[in-house]
Amino acid sequence: MSTVNAKRIRQLPASVVNKIAAGEVIERPASVVKELLENSVDAGATQIEVALEQGGTELIRVTDNASGIAHDQLELAVTSHATSKIDDADDLFRVGTFGFRGEALASITEVGQATIRSRTADQDSGFELTINGGQRESMVPCGAPAGTTIEIRELFYNTPVRRKFLRSPQTEKGHITEAFTRIALAHPEIRMTLLNNNKPLHQLPATHSWSERIGEFFGPEIADNLIPISSESGEVAIHGYVVNPSVSRANNKMQYLFLNNRCIRDRSLQHALSEAYRGLLMTGRFPVCFLRMTMPFELVDVNVHPAKLEVRFQNGGQIYSHLLGTVRNKFLSTDLTAHAQLNKPSVQAGPGLGAPAAHIPSSHQEQIAFTPAAPTRDWTIAPRDAMNRQLLEGATQTSPAMPFDDSIFPSVEGEPGRPRQPLSAGTPLTRFDRDIQHGEATPAETSAMDPPPTRRRPLALQVHNTYLISETDEGMIVIDQHALHERIIYEQLREKILAGKLETQGLLVPEPVTLPPAEAAAVLEQTELLATIGIGIQPFGGDTVLVSSYPAMLANHNPAEMLRSVVDKLMEDSSKLDSRDLVDELLHMISCKAAIKAGDKLTNEEIDSLLQHRQLCQDAHHCPHGRPTSLVFSRQELDRRFKRI
Ligand code: ADP
Ligand code: MG
Fold first, then answer.
1. How far from 529 is each of 267, 279, 523, 525, 534, CA to CA, in Å?
2. Which residues pair with residue 249 across a beta bridge?
3. Which atom of ligand 1 is nearest to the CA of 98?
4. Residue 265 — φ and ψ, nearest 5°?
5. pTM of the model
6. CA 205 to CA 193: how far, in whole Å?
7. Residue 599 and which of 147, 546, 569, 579 are 20 to 30 A apart at CA?
């Protein structure tokens, strides 16, 4: 016989229910700040002040100048499921305010010592309600300006487990700052202040300019690099800014998405952004953006997450493509060249109004910041082929020995370890380094060297066997030879793959490669995909596979070694990437391997060829990993540095 007695089922007392609910809404001090700020915004505040002591662990006080809560409503406001914002269940589907569950004040007053002071404009005096741990202590008249002040002391004093989980004041302050930032970004029209231990962290004047508020928070590094985007599709609109890829972050926290003024996190939209920045950012770097989306309330369910951070779109796919398309189009018509700007010892070098010093890039005078350039050529207008021809005609005139062909690719017969041939074998080799070492050649030297007619200056000067320097209309450009070559190869490869015209090199005797079992299985699973990038694989039995062909431009690499690096990519990425991503990753790898390296001395012809091919690139500004391929120093910057102006 069982000795276990059936347990009695009881209805939980309201205070316990509220504490459970409170746990859902109030995770830490930042949750309190978020809820109180949202209430102030919902109530129509034009000024809000948040004051903290010890990062909110001792005190949180939010003061607004909004509608206030009428005397007879004060107690109701702090009871559970009491709200002025919705009337019935249908309203849940057209929620335009931040709040609507009527739970925040009930939860907050359950887990802290709260004082609420409020006065509506038509009341002569305000009232102050004190509640400790959900127990009403007092309600007394008090003098108060119109609006509401809510003070929470000793958060979680009655839920010791939670209190124990509080992090240091410093950490909690960080979370609060983030909550504050989200709301302040969504509402530039509200004047907002954040103080900790009486020290102002942010003092934000009201403004109608979104970029101004963004600048207040994040300083000129971001504010100077905003690229406005704006697009509407049906009832969905996206407005705001993406940030020039020269500025990126190691995580996606600086992707601010606002849906109908509510800050949200949405994986699919984050993915759309990464897609749009593909090839513009280095692996592991994330775009920065500030985007506002608006859509009819019916098209989105905000009631899926207690803190309402996640939402459910009725038509997620369409919104994904909308965002991706908008950002991509914008980038196609924007010059994303990284501009080297030597910071002047500027007037605005000190922290701006309310901007915390940490956000301001240090004002080292030699520091290189990047600013967006004026939009130039719209690459979408001319069909690539017509444009190639046009550019080639130009190129042919200046350099008849340089027909557009695949000579930029490493030659199959290159010496081992140096898989290149001079790009134009017919031209006598005039070494540019002589020009560098000797400066302007003296007549005597000239006669001792190559005959003058063949001495042709290359289009750029190679320095440290790594960078190419050239004059441009704007000023001067410094090119990373490896990054640029990599980009060129990457684009050409991609084009060939898309056209089904990738040259592959068949092996007379297929090379057996033995791999760890999991890797062999992965390779055999992906033979089709590998074939698209020119790698022919056949099963051999056991954990051995045969490499029967590989991309011609990797002719100088050992097939087994090449396959192993491909496998590394396959293993690391196949779970999270679709096949298009994978092909792209592999293309990056192949381009990197095939490209000239830093340290390779280039002939004049090679330099010219690189620069001419640069003109043909869709994105000549970034290597496939997203590093910049070039830096532009404007004439003006140079003049300024040399104190000519
Ligand atoms: P919700 O915001 O979901 O309605 P809350 O518990 O946060 O629930 O607030 C309850 C009610 O108290 C609100 O619906 C609103 O009427 C009132 N209220 C809360 N904060 C303020 C404020 N700062 N100014 C005016 N009214 C407020
Ligand atoms: Mg609320």
1. 26, 20, 9, 9, 9
2. 286
3. 2
4. -120, 130
5. 0.58
6. 9
7. 569
Beta strand pairing call for 226-233 and 199-204: unpaired
Helix (H) / strand (E) element for 506: namely strand 504-514
CA of 104 to the centre of ligand 2 (A): 5
Cβ proximity of 153 and 166 under 8 Å: no
Round to whole Å and give the CA distance between 485 and 344.
33
Per-residue CA distances from 644 to 152, 341, 631 (Å): 59, 16, 22
Q: Which two tokens stand for residue 387?
A: 């444009």
Token pair listed for 217 = 């928070």
Bridge-based pairing state of the strands 630-634 and 338-342: parallel
With contact defined as beta carbons under 8 Å apart, do 399 and 415 qualify? no
E-only strand ranges, 299-442: 300-301, 312-313, 338-342, 368-369
Task: Name residue, tokens 């951070």.
Answer: 309
- Mutating to test ligand 1, I would choose from 25, 80, 84 the residue with most ligand atoms within 8 A of its C-beta, which is 84
Distance CA 127, CA 139 (A): 7
b/e per residue 527-552 (b: at least 16 CB within 10 A): eebbebbbbbbeebeebebbbbbbbb
d(CA 573, CA 283): 12
By the 8 A CB rule, do 246 and 281 touch? no
For the ranges 386-390, 467-471, 548-552, which has the lowest average pLDDT?
A: 386-390
Distance CA 154, CA 111 (A): 9
Residue 148: count of CB within 10 angstroms of its CB: 27
Which residue CA neighbors atom 2 of ligand 1 most closely?
99
Q: Report the range out of 45-54, 273-282, 460-469, 560-569 with the highest average pLDDT.
A: 45-54
Residues 6+ apart with CB under 8 A from 227: 241, 242, 243, 244, 330, 334, 372
Q: How far apart are CA 257 and CA 265, in angstroms?
A: 7
Atom 25 (ligand 1) nearest CA: 68
pLDDT at res. 447: 38
- In 244-390, the DSSP E strands lie at 255-259, 262-264, 289-294, 300-301, 312-313, 338-342, 368-369
Of 141-155, 334-348, 416-430, 513-527, the least confident:
416-430
Question: What is the DSSP code string of 334-365?
Answer: S--PEEEEE--S-GGGS--TT--GGGSPP--T
Place of tokens 């090379």: 511
**Does residue 85 contact residue 97 with C-beta atoms inside 8 Å?**
yes
**Strand (E) or helix (H) holding 612:** helix 604-616
pLDDT digits (tens, 9 = 90+) for 419-445: 333 333 222 223 222 232 333 333 333
Tokens of 258: 């606002």
Q: Of all atoms in ligand 1, which is nearest to the CA of residue 66?
A: 24
> Minimum-distance ligand to the CA of 76?
1
